[in-house]
From TrEMBL, chain B:
GO terms for biological process: peptide transport. Keywords: Signal. Residues 1-22 form the signal peptide. CDD domains: PBP2_clavulanate_OppA2 (cd08506). Residues 92-485 form the Solute-binding protein family domain. GO terms for molecular function: peptide transmembrane transporter activity. The keyword Signal applies. This is ABC transporter substrate-binding protein. Transmembrane segments: none annotated.
UniProtKB/TrEMBL annotation, chain C:
PANTHER family: ABC TRANSPORTER PERMEASE PROTEIN, DIPEPTIDE TRANSPORT SYSTEM PERMEASE PROTEIN DPPB-RELATED. The chain crosses the membrane at residues 9-28, 120-143, 155-178, 198-221, 255-280, 306-331. GO terms for cellular component: plasma membrane. It comes from the Bacteria. InterPro entries: BPD_transp_1_N, MetI-like, MetI-like_sf. This is ABC transporter permease. The keyword Cell wall biogenesis/degradation does not apply. It comes from Nocardioides marmoriginsengisoli. Keywords: Cell membrane, Membrane, Transmembrane, Transmembrane helix, Transport. SUPFAM superfamilies: MetI-like.
TrEMBL record, chain D:
The chain crosses the membrane at residues 48-67, 123-148, 160-182, 202-224, 255-275, 312-331. InterPro entries: BP-dependent_transpt_permease, MetI-like, MetI-like_sf, OppC_N. Keywords: Cell membrane, Membrane, Transmembrane, Transmembrane helix, Transport. It is a multi-pass membrane protein. GO terms for cellular component: plasma membrane. Residues 1-27 are annotated as: Disordered. One of its GO terms (biological process) is transmembrane transport. The keyword Phosphoprotein does not apply. It is found in: Cell membrane. Belongs to the binding-protein-dependent transport system permease family. The keyword RNA-binding does not apply. This is ABC transporter permease. It comes from Nocardioides marmoriginsengisoli. PROSITE patterns: ABC_TM1.
């Protein structure tokens, strides 16, 4: 059956997803018209500052906003069925089975009162009609798989008795125990230190290969994206501002915000005179986002656009110079040129040479 | 009023009213009460209300209610009053455990009684003369037998007094000076003899009114621990133990022989005593005519909040004038009221009507014109108060105040026994009147601490409240206890003389003369003379005489507010119907 | 664990000692003379002195406290008068250990008074506790789950209004109308299980318990609601939903368990407080419990009883504290007792 | 209210987690305070109760003046308007309602009920507010100090809290009332500047305040301590330490501003609790006595007139309930506004 998906059309396609929260202070447009596709065994990285709508969109895919005040519209087609059309019950049955989520900060994401094993087994029991014993066996197997030492002893520990990395592994075990087709990993490594990060990411990739599952990895760390993702989706103020194959986007970013993100990543093997250019200003209010291009208040290249389009009209998400697969949301006429001549020398001097 | 007030106030004991005015008239008043004859059997209830019984020990009892009830149900003494509402009959002692009402010699300095030989304690033991002697002796154990009217014995009984003002006999527990007592109180077979220091003409009445000379069982005496122990010699005995705050149940005493007892009808099979219910609860139940309350009687007065519902009650309602008088006392130690003029100003300014209205109106009180209750023989309207209008005389008050030496406006502090909404209302009513006359009154309500405060001779109040009823029908049990500075005022306390009034040699002489007079009628008029003098000095300002407004259960028979029980329900005659 | 409990108990005892001293000091400083009260009105200075002596009020502060403390362990005699021991031993009341003192006004040892009144207060406390926990927590949870709906607002509103009326007000109304005038239930009169059996006992407790429960329920509804709402917004609840667990499981297994933990603490301590007698409720319904005893003892400055009660009630609270903490550790694995 | 020993315990305020990046937290531009204000204003119920509370406060402030200038006469007698044969209930319908006495008269003395109720606010609210202030003051100071310095100090305060909490409040209230009030009036009033305490009303009031705050502070201290612990490690405190700020400055300039939210909420919820506490105390005979009116002593008298004078019975009860509810709702509103997480 997996083949069937990979053949006709993508496994997951999100079309014009809108998530709005009515609050006492007005409507918060957390996600506004987001679209992307994802095939089996593929990974997409969703990047953006906190509050750019990454997490919100992904929980929308899981249907976690159901029963809350959130207004969700658009289409989320997973393996041929539109998740938004499903009844709450049908959605619940898919949750954790076909789509599962790996949360950041597993300490708060795991229930402090129940043992790790208990919580993982629970996820298995709810979707499989098996005995507690079988579930426990399965849990052990998963813990083993995610690389928890002596799982048979740790299975009855409580989350607070685990180390950060261990907890994250346990989370992953919980997410994968029903080998779901789609895994959403929400900042899976932010809480961890670098070495552990690497391990977790490797683990995720191995598992992906094993189960041939699709992964949405949410992060603000382009390093993670570079390592994991086939495609990358840059989000700003609830909208996709750049979307394309990872390599492409990272080498030829078309949108000043992406430049900003790139420039604010300390380049691991890069040389020391690489300047860190933070993005000036704060993330915009989602209550009343800026007119035109939501990024314009922080955009240094605004001047280069005639008739202050940036402030007046919202740019479409259109293919740039890099072909149809790579779209961007920006008024700049020739971002490539600008990037090569102005930005690159600043942030990655060494790259100039080989050019 | 005093009775229902806080702890010590209650110690003032009911008088034997020679006349309890049965106020006839509309809305079901029927003075005596439901006269229908009761039949034996059934269970009756007595509601003690919020004022718990403090002692069942006969030598320690000093509260009218408890003296009455115990006397009607389980305690008998040498003499007692018959259950009668007749002003004379109801207040003349008749033989009870004695064969006669006592014979006096040496003009009332020696009293002899003969104990019946056919009367028993609840355990079947015969009641002996020694039991009476022992009972009397307990009054002298002043560290254990506390709270009773022992003072009378200390004053009269022929036992020398030590330096500390206490008798040299220390009671049957310490036994110090036992021989002194045995000389004063002696048994000869069944005949007991009491020897006095000075004549005591109305000694039998004191026995019938109080219980301090009841017999007691030496072999069952646990001193302080006997406080709630009841050794019955009457028709009922305590079933189980008495629980303070809850009450107890009384059942028939098989060793009581009706033939020996002309007073107690003992109709119900049991008497349940309930403590702790508020007036509201008790009276709501009486009116609702449901549940056990139908078999209930109480000593608590009907709160004014119920007056508008008296019609509902119909025949269950009774109303009689009580033997108590309430008054205010100017403090003779206060800078303001050491001046007679200021006291007179206060006298004229006092508005009895306002005070009465605040307390429930003419149904609750009737104006008083002396500290002595009209029911006490020899009562006379005190000239000093008789002709002032009940709502005061502002003009004279202002005039007197003008001559008052105190700086104007005359600031005074009225310390009273507060704590109940009614008492607070009455106080503010009084304040309003005084202020109208030109005083500037500060109200100082005290609840539990009231007496411990005002009894301090150095207390800084200017006026205070007081209430009293005669112990037995003699002004001798009203004026000396209240105004004889010699027996009241000590360095640490002013006793009952809250106003710290000191009559000086003149008044002291008058009192002694009245005491010395053995002819009761002559004595009465002498007492009236003393009262007049008190009026001139404005030692007190009379307010009102409490009127008893009662309801009782609808299944109660033979209910009657007898003079013999100070206007309270006489349990001797009460029965219940099915 | 055991070590912890023992340590806490020791701390508790120390606390009690301090308490008793503070209490003694407070009453010792009081300008009111208890002997005066015990002695009565027509009481000469000499008589008062004797009374004070027989009650032990003539000693200095430390001597009095010392005697008290000694009494707790070995008991004491009242009055402690060697002469009387010879002439009339039967008049000496012995107060066996643990002796909290002897009440002259009530001519009974404080321990007996407590034995007598404790069951009443305990009964009211237990029944009321049942009412308000079941009622309060249940309604609170409902309100939280139905947040924003009419039910929610209704419940919160109601609890507020009930909370706004003082206990005595509600109690008096219940007594006057429900019991006496409409006669729906008999006028409450405490009946021990021994007499009335469970049903008699329960029905005799109905009104007082309700009166008391209403008061606490109001608080508990709102508290529970707040806690549940808080835990519903926790990450682990989101995780549970992400797992695809049914709503029921999410709510009851994951959300409530965490939410109710603090309630347990609250309830434990409140209950302890109540065992000491709900003074107002007991006075309104004339229930002879610890509370009523306290009121009575207060009207005649019966110091031994007052002090005894304070110590007793304090020990309730202290013990409850320990139990609650232990319980907490049992419920919440993160809490380590040490 | 709880009076109660722990009869008051039941109404501890739910702990306030500081609002993390919840949805509303994302909203930039306006300060948290402004946001809270906006939210509060948006909530009708809170606003209504806010106005009611304001009215109550107004009454409390205005009454003494109105009494002075003779508009109100809380203890003037009108016994002529009473039916003294029926125990002194007012003539006329609804407890003697008339133009001159819009809410009727009190039985017995016929005082003007409107005046009394209005003037009672001055005392009841006065007691509640002073009590709350002192409670919060003690709680905050001890809370901050113990939370901040930790170690020995923290432990000591902790024990102190235990000691306070293990005292049976209502019992102590009863047992200490009479002696303490005597003490205040006789001895304390001897002290310089304290002469006014000879006045029984002030003495009684002071006693209630003392009891309320003496037993009320521990919860506040705990809440504050918790807050302090949570912010103690934050950078700005470190910074302040580094620039060598004095302890006092640290406590009150740096820490206090960051724990004000829970304190505010707690305060607004304490006031109504203390108002009904005063009423409960009055029932036990503790507190300011008539003719000086307080909600408590009015209610205490009115409850016994259920049948005889229903108007007089109901009005005080309703006024008390209304006041308490209003203040509570304001408190709730404040909490919801400051902490969107527990939002309705």
């Amino acid at each position: 059956m997996t083949d069937m998906h990979s053949n006709d059309g993508p496994y997951l396609s999100v079309e014009d997803l809108v998530v709005h929260f009515p609050t006492a202070d007005g409507i918060v447009k957390a996600t506004d018209g987001l679209s992307f596709t994802l095939g089996r065994g593929k990974t997409i990285g969703v990047v953006g500052e906190s509050g750019s709508g990454k997490s919100v969109s992904s929980s929308a895919i899981l249907g976690l906003h159901r029963g809350s005040s959130a207004q969700v519209s658009g289409r989320i087609v997973l393996g041929g069925t539109d998740l938004l059309m499903l009844s709450d019950e049908e959605m619940r049955l898919r949750r954790g089975k076909e789509v599962s989520m790996i949360f950041q900060d597993p300490l708060s994401a795991m229930h402090p009162y129940y043992t790790v094993g208990n919580q993982i087994a629970e996820a298995y029991l709810v979707h499989n009609d098996v005995s507690k014993k079988a579930a426990r066996a399965r849990t052990l197997e998963m813990l083993e798989r995610v690389g928890i030492p002596q799982p048979d002893r740790r299975i009855d520990d409580y989350p607070h008795q685990f180390s950060g990395g261990m907890r994250q592994r346990a989370m992953i075990a919980m997410g994968l125990i029903n080998d779901p087709g789609l895994i959403i990993a929400d900042e899976p490594t932010t809480a961890l230190d670098v070495t552990v990060q690497a391990q977790i990411l490797d683990l995720l990739q191995d598992l992906q290969r094993e189960f041939n599952s699709a992964i949405i990895i949410i992060t603000h760390d382009l390093g993670v994206v570079a390592e994991m993702a086939d495609d990358v989706l840059v989000m700003y103020a609830g909208r996709a501002v750049e979307y394309g194959p990872t390599k492409d986007v990272l080498t030829h970013p078309q949108m000043p915000y992406t430049w900003g993100l790139l420039s604010s990543v300390p380049d691991v093997q890069g040389d020391t005179n690489a300047a860190l250019i933070p993005i000036p200003g704060n993330p915009p209010s989602l209550l009343n986002p800026p007119t035109g291009c939501a990024f314009h208040p922080r955009c240094v290249h605004r001047s280069k656009v005639p008739a202050d389009l940036c402030t007046t009209t919202l740019p479409e998400l259109l293919p740039g110079s890099q072909g149809p697969g790579h779209t961007k949301r920006c008024h700049l006429a020739d971002p490539d040129e600008l990037y090569r001549t102005e930005i690159l020398p600043e942030i990655m001097p060494d790259l100039i040479v080989e050019d | 009023m005093a009775i229902s007030k806080k702890p010590f106030a209650a110690l003032a004991v009911a008088a034997l009213a020679t006349t309890l005015v049965a106020c006839g008239g509309s809305d079901g008043d029927n003075g005596g009460g439901s006269k229908s004859e009761g039949t034996a059997g059934g269970n009756a209830i007595f509601y003690n209300g919020v004022r718990n019984t403090e002692h069942w020990d006969p030598q320690r009892m000093y509260i009218g209610r408890d003296l009455n009830n115990s006397g009607r149900l389980f305690y008998r003494s040498l003499v007692a009053y018959p259950a009668s509402n007749d002003p004379v009959k109801g207040t003349t002692p008749i033989p009870d455990l004695a064969t006669d009402t006592g014979t006096s010699e040496e003009a009332g300095k020696v009293w002899k009684f003969t104990v019946r030989d056919d009367v028993k304690w609840e355990d079947g033991k015969a009641i002996t003369c020694e039991d009476f002697a022992y009972g009397a002796s307990r009054n002298f154990a002043t560290d254990v037998i506390i709270g009773g009217p022992a003072n009378y014995l200390f004053t009269y009984l022929d036992i020398p007094t030590g330096k500390d003002g206490l008798p040299e006999y220390k009671g049957p527990f310490k036994k110090t000076g036992q021989d002194l007592f045995d000389k004063a109180v002696s048994c000869d077979g069944n005949t007991i003899t009491y020897k006095m220091k000075k004549p005591w003409p109305d000694f039998p009445q004191s026995i019938a009114s109080l219980r301090y000379l009841d017999p007691y069982r030496a072999d069952l005496d646990k001193g302080d621990a006997s406080n709630f122990q009841i050794i019955s010699n009457g028709p009922y005995k305590l079933d189980g133990k008495w629980t303070e705050g809850t009450g107890g149940k009384f059942v028939r005493n098989t060793n009581w022989d009706a033939k020996t007892d002309t007073i107690r009808k003992a109709l119900p099979d049991t008497w349940q005593f309930k403590e702790g219910d508020t007036e509201e609860t008790i009276y709501e139940q009486f009116l609702a005519k449901t549940g056990d309350a139908n078999f209930g009687v109480t000593e608590r007065r009907m709160p004014p909040t119920f007056y508008s519902r008296i019609a509902e009650a119909g025949k269950l309602y009774t109303k009689v004038e009580s033997p108590f008088v309430d008054y205010v006392l100017p403090n003779f130690n206060s800078p303001v009221f050491k001046d007679i003029k200021c006291r007179e100003a206060l006298k004229f300014a006092t508005d009895k009507t306002a005070w009465i209205n605040a307390g429930g109106g003419e149904r609750a009180f009737t104006p008083a014109y002396s500290a002595v209750n009209p029911s006490v023989p020899g009562y006379e309207k005190n000239a000093a108060f008789g002709d002032i209008p009940d709502n005061g005389d502002i003009e004279q008050a202002k005039a007197a105040l003008a001559e008052c030496s105190a700086p104007k406006p005359v600031k005074i502090k009225f310390t009273y026994s507060g704590g109940t909404p009614t008492s607070d209302k009455q106080a503010s009513a009084l304040k309003a009147a005084w202020d109208k006359a030109g005083f500037k009154t500060e109200l100082d309500p005290l609840a539990d601490t009231y007496y411990s405060v005002i009894q301090k001779p150095d207390a800084d109040f200017d006026v205070t409240w007081g209430g009293w009823g005669a112990d037995w029908p003699s002004i001798g049990t009203v004026i000396p206890p209240l105004f004889d500075s010699r027996i009241n005022i000590t360095p640490s306390s002013n006793g009952n003389d809250y106003g710290n009034y000191k009559g000086g040699p003149e008044v002291d002489a008058m009192i002694d003369a009245a005491y010395a007079e053995t002819d009761l009628t002559k004595a009465a008029s002498l007492w009236a003379g003393v009262d007049a003098k008190l009026g001139e000095d404005v030692a007190y300002i009379p307010l009102e005489i409490t009127i008893f407004n009662f309801l009782h259960g609808s299944k109660i028979t033979g209910y009657s507010n007898n003079v013999s029980t100070n206007g309270y329900a006489d349990l001797a005659t009460i029965g219940v119907t099915k | 664990m055991v070590a912890y409990i023992i340590r806490r108990l020791i701390a508790g005892v120390v606390l009690l000692v301090v308490m008793s001293i503070v209490t003694f000091a407070l009453f010792f400083a009081s300008p009111i003379d208890p002997a005066q009260f015990a002695c009565g009105k027509n009481c000469s200075p000499a008589m008062k002195a004797q009374t004070a002596a027989s009650m032990g009020y003539d000693d200095n502060f430390f001597a009095q406290w010392g005697k008290f403390a000694k009494g707790v362990f070995v008991g004491r005699d009242f009055p402690d008068d060697p002469k009387l021991k010879i002439t009339a031993p039967e008049t000496i009341a012995h107060c066996a250990a643990p002796c909290l003192g002897y009440s002259k006004e009530r001519t009974s040892t404080v321990t007996d008074l407590i034995k007598q009144t404790m069951p009443v207060s305990l009964s009211i406390a237990v029944v009321a506790f049942a009412f308000w926990i079941i009622g309060g927590v249940l309604l609170g949870v409902i309100a939280a789950l139905k947040r924003g709906t009419l039910i929610d607002r209704g419940l919160v509103g109601l609890s507020l209004v009930l909370y706004a009326f003082p206990t005595f007000f509600i109690g008096l109304l219940l007594l006057k109308f429900v019991a006496i005038q409409w006669n729906w239930v008999p006028v409450p009169e405490y009946t021990p299980i021994a007499e009335g059996g469970i049903t008699g006992w329960l029905s005799s407790l109905l009104l007082p318990a309700i009166t008391l429960a209403v008061f606490f329920m109001a608080g508990y509804v709102r508290m529970t609601r707040a806690f549940v709402l808080e835990s519903l917004s926790e990450d682990y609840v989101r995780t549970a939903r992400a797992k695809g667990l049914p709503k029921r499981t999410v709510t009851f297994k994951h959300a409530l368990r965490a939410a109710l933990t603090p309630i347990v603490t609250m309830a434990g301590l409140d209950f302890a407080g109540l065992m000491g007698g709900a003074i107002i409720t007991e006075s309104v319904f004339n229930y002879p419990g610890l509370g009523k005893l306290a009121v009575a003892a207060n009207t005649d400055f019966d110091l031994p009883t007052l002090v005894g009660l304070v110590i007793l009630l304090a020990s309730f609270v202290i013990i409850a504290n320990i139990i609650v903490d232990v319980l907490y550790a049992v419920i919440d694995p993160r809490v380590r007792l040490s | 209210m709880t009076i109660p020993a722990s009869e008051m315990e039941g109404h501890a305020v739910p702990p306030l987690g500081e609002s993390e990046e919840g949805v509303a937290g994302k909203v930039a531009g306006r300060s948290p305070t402004q946001l809270a204000m906006a939210r509060f204003r948006a909530d009708k119920l809170s606003m209504i109760s806010f106005y009611v509370s304001c009215f109550v406060v107004f009454a409390a402030v205005a009454s003494p003046i109105l009494v002075k200038i003779g508009v109100f006469d809380p203890d003037g007698l009108n016994q002529d308007k009473l039916n003294t044969d029926l125990g002194g209930i007012p003539h006329g319908a609804f407890g003697g309602v008339s133009w001159s006495h819009p809410l009727g008269l009190t039985p017995g003395n016929g005082e003007d009920l409107l005046s009394r109720l209005s003037f009672s606010m001055t005392y009841s609210l006065g007691i509640a507010l002073t009590g709350t202030l002192i409670t919060v003051l003690i709680g905050v100071v001890l809370g901050i100090i113990s939370g901040f310095s930790g170690g020995f100090v923290d432990a000591t305060v902790g024990r102190f809290i235990d000691l306070t909490l293990s005292f049976p409040q209502t019992m102590m209230l009863l047992a200490l009332a009479a002696p303490t009030v005597l003490l205040i009036r006789k001895d304390v009033s001897e002290l310089p500047l304290l002469g006014f305490l000879e006045n029984p009303d002030l003495a009684n009031g002071l006693f209630v305040v003392i009891i309320l705050s003496a037993f009320g502070w521990p919860p506040v201290a705990r809440v504050v301590r918790g807050q302090v612990l949570s912010i103690r490690e934050r950078e700005f405190i470190e910074a302040a330490k580094l620039i060598g700020a004095s302890r006092k400055r640290l406590y009150f300039k740096e820490v206090l501003p960051n724990v004000w939210a829970p304190i505010l909420v707690y305060t607004t919820l304490l006031i109504p609790a203390y108002i009904s506490a005063e009423a409960a105390f009055s029932f036990l005979g503790v507190g300011i006595k008539p003719p000086t009116p307080t909600l408590g002593n009015i209610l205490r008298d009115s409850v016994s007139w259920t049948t005889a004078d229903p108007t007089y019975f109901f009005l005080p009860g309703i006024v008390l309930a209304l006041t308490v509810v209003a203040f509570n709702l304001v408190g709730d509103g404040a909490r919801d506004a400051l902490d969107p997480k527990t939002h309705r």
